[in-house]
Write a structure and sequence with these properties.
432 residues, alpha+beta, Rossmann fold, Dna Ligase, domain 1, D-amino Acid Aminotransferase, Chain A, domain 1, five-stranded parallel sheet, 14 helices
Length: 432
């Protein structure tokens, strides 16, 4: 198959890499790709958010499938544009991508579908949002309604923190248009996990569970990031929970979107909160609640989940894109996987770019797989070009083996100012 992967991060490198593992020999392209994807795909000088540019390339080159990695081009209607010229695309149309593009819209769909989630209200006025805080107690969650690169969520422990977050978004315009509306939301007690559900708009197949680490520092301290690491499977998600997640969370959303005239094809990512026995149950009354929905593969979850998939990945993607997804399209290997994000000093705030990266081949020789998140090639050198620079993944028969292999790979990598969390999968190990 001729396949175009849209995007330039670790998620897209993982998608292209996994497609290259198929027994079939695919012709893979990335738009625009990065220094890592160049090893498995041909880079196209078209930006991921250049909808017209991607569509022009597809029209001229006739790919069998386009796989859209990031959320922004989906929200902008890239899938709609590709479908209009007859190109199969893995990723929802803009109306479906609103599940991520607008948290208010996602809440409306969940409420209509009867999906358990935290109570929330939406505001455009800071004074009204602050007045609502008394109705929610503490902690309370403040969210920017739109896309904010994974950073538009604040879990406020004090009223002062909540009011500051509201002011940052509605008064200080910290997230631009994404923060023009904010949600004041019920705090959900428990442990978060991620379920990536593949759907063709009718059928749903759950991919292996995973858990990412959103806070920047060890011990889940510091500000939220786009993710500092992930592992799969997540022990907090038991086999007994999977039918409930599919039938009471994912399928109702797919059906509600279909009722509204939107056939959702691609990944519907459910960020879930699992409340333990004895924990504070949400107002929904359920122990499993939706924190958020995303309209694409997660990052860095993808770098931990895709290495666990067997079979033909391209076939699974194509079947979802063309309305004929089957349970047997997803084959899960028994090994565990863990990935560690190596980041630039200052992330998730400001950071410098252009630092030379060394040790990449040594990391691979140590048994890890290195996915490039924010890199670029400069002659024979590989340089940093983002806050999250690398996602180093290890596989193993046990989670401990997978984590150790990932960190063995990280130890071989070096660039000025690099840092990473040293406690990936700590929740799983604490469970015993």
């Amino acid at each position: 198959m001729k396949i175009l992967v849209v995007g330039s991060g670790g998620r897209e490198h993982a998608i292209a890499w996994r497609l290259a593992q198929d027994e079939e020999r695919h012709e893979i392209f990335c738009a625009p790709g990065n220094a890592g994807t160049a090893a498995v795909a041909t880079s196209i000088a078209v930006g991921a958010e250049d909808v017209a540019g991607v569509a022009k390339w597809a029209r001229e080159n006739g790919p069998d499938l386009v796989v859209v990695g990031p959320e922004a081009p989906l929200v902008k209607g890239l899938a709609d544009e590709l479908l209009s010229i007859g190109v199969p695309v893995f990723g929802p149309v803009a109306a479906g991508a609103r599940m991520e593009g607008s948290k208010r819209f996602a809440k409306e769909v969940m409420d209509a579908a009867g999906v358990p989630t935290g109570r929330a209200e939406t505001f455009t006025d800071a004074a009204s949002a602050k007045a609502a805080l008394a109705r929610y107690g503490l902690p309370v969650v403040i969210k920017a309604d739109g896309l904010a690169a994974g950073k538009g969520v604040v879990v406020a422990e004090t009223r002062e923190q909540a009011e500051s977050a509201i002011d940052d978004m509605l008064v200080g315009n910290k997230f631009g248009a994404a923060g023009a509306e904010v949600l004041v939301e019920e705090f959900l007690d428990g442990e978060e996990c991620s379920i990536l559900a593949m759907t063709d708009g009718e059928s749903v197949v759950l991919l292996p569970s995973s858990q990412d680490h959103k806070r920047v520092f060890d011990g889940d301290k510091g500000p939220n990031t786009g993710g500092m690491g992930a592992y799969s499977p997540a022990p907090v998600v038991t086999d007994a929970m999977l039918p409930e997640i599919k039938e009471k969370i994912v399928m109702p959303v797919v059906r509600e979107l279909k009722r509204r005239g939107t056939t959702y094809r691609g990944i519907l990512y459910a960020g879930l909160m699992i409340t333990p026995e004895g924990g504070r149950v949400a107002l929904s009354g359920s122990r499993i609640n939706v924190v958020e929905f995303n309209a694409r593969f997660g990052d860095p979850e993808t770098e931990a989940v895709l290495p666990r998939l067997g079979g033909s990945f391209a076939t699974a993607l194509l079947h979802a894109a063309t309305g004929c997804l089957r349970d047997e399209d997803i084959v899960v290997r028994p090994e565990c996987a863990a990935t560690v994000i190596v980041a630039s000093a200052g992330y998730p705030g400001s950071y410098e770019k252009g630092k030379e990266i060394t040790g990449l081949a040594d990391a691979e020789a140590a048994g890890a797989t290195v996915f490039h998140c924010g890199t670029k090639s400069d002659g024979g050198r590989t340089l940093t070009s983002g806050g999250r620079v690398l996602s180093v993944t290890g596989m193993g028969a046990t989670l401990r083996e997978a984590v150790d292999r990932a960190y063995a790979g990280v130890a071989k990598v070096s660039f000025d100012g690099m840092f990473y969390r040293r406690d990936i999968a700590h929740r799983a190990f604490e469970r015993g």
